[in-house]
Amino acid sequence: MKNLTKIMFMFMMVMSTVIVISSNNWLSMWMGLEMNLLSFIPLMFNKKKKSESMMMYFMIQSMASIILLISILWNNLLMVSNLLSQNLMNNIMIISLIMKMGGAPFHFWLPEVIMVLNWNSCFILMTWQKIAPIFMLSKLKMSSLLIIFIISSAYIGAVGGLNQNSIKKILAFSSINHLSWIMASIYMDSKIWIKYLLIYAMMLSLIIFMLNMYNLNYISQTNITPTSTLFKINLTLMIMSLGGLPPLLGFIPKLMIIQSMIMKNNLIILLMIMLSMITLFYYMKIMTNMIMNFYMTNKWMLKTMKQEKYQFMIMSMNLLLPFMSFLLM
């Protein structure tokens, strides 16, 4: 019965996103966002953790939905079209959508909520829950206000993860930094954000699969958890790919965005590239702690997991897909 309930809420969450994408009316999009909110909250429930995160998520999302609804009703223009005027209400809608996605400077709730979720819910929150707000953002008239959110998200996502020991918080700030690249693609009126989000979700799913396999939540656990050498090499490659190092998979979408922005906003893309280098620093904290140090084998951690075939599959995806993805460019 419990699994049937989860399946029902998952189906509602998927259908709510489909409603947002297939709508040509702002009110129906808002309704899809509300369905998405109410279907995800039961999936966040965890008996071992406190429920304050669910309340925090509900309050932030409800506040953003109220702001969005007020701006929609104030516009008196319900159809999505190029006639969407009134820059003030347009900017308010952008602010509400950034708040829903957890972009800086409205990011304070995202690391705290992710910290108490399980890995599956973390993946949904960092990927699927952003599809509907990003789609709505792409339908809005772009303004200079979005540049402020792009730069602030790139900065907070880079600097916020420097002093963190929790892998979940590191991935949360990494998600904020990747959100800045997606918003930059939207600002350039490009459809590259679809490819970027797809590749980012693919990389994050593989990383979370490997972390969940050994129940790794903190960097310090990499010293005491017995893992195979192939697992360490594989996770290192995936983290480097998430940082956007060539010639791995994560470099391809960043290269496409750089090519689309280099002729128009040189300063912004240069700043984003420099801030992305900072994210590599706290990625390296995970890698060096795991590879350069020998782990301590405790008696209660002697369970070995024979899943080498999955490791080879993940490694081949990370190394071979970049060459295949050049066909998408």
TrEMBL record:
One of its GO terms (molecular function) is NADH dehydrogenase (ubiquinone) activity. One of its GO terms (biological process) is mitochondrial electron transport, NADH to ubiquinone. GO terms for cellular component: mitochondrial inner membrane. The chain crosses the membrane at residues 109-128, 140-158, 170-188, 197-215, 235-255, 267-284, 310-328. It holds the Pfam family Proton_antipo_M. It is a multi-pass membrane protein. It is found in: Mitochondrion inner membrane. Coiled coil: none annotated. Core subunit of the mitochondrial membrane respiratory chain NADH dehydrogenase (Complex I) which catalyzes electron transfer from NADH through the respiratory chain, using ubiquinone as an electron acceptor. Essential for the catalytic activity and assembly of complex I. Core subunit of the mitochondrial membrane respiratory chain NADH dehydrogenase (Complex I) that is believed to belong to the minimal assembly required for catalysis. Complex I functions in the transfer of electrons from NADH to the respiratory chain. The immediate electron acceptor for the enzyme is believed to be ubiquinone. Belongs to the complex I subunit 2 family. This is NADH-ubiquinone oxidoreductase chain 2. The gene is ND2.
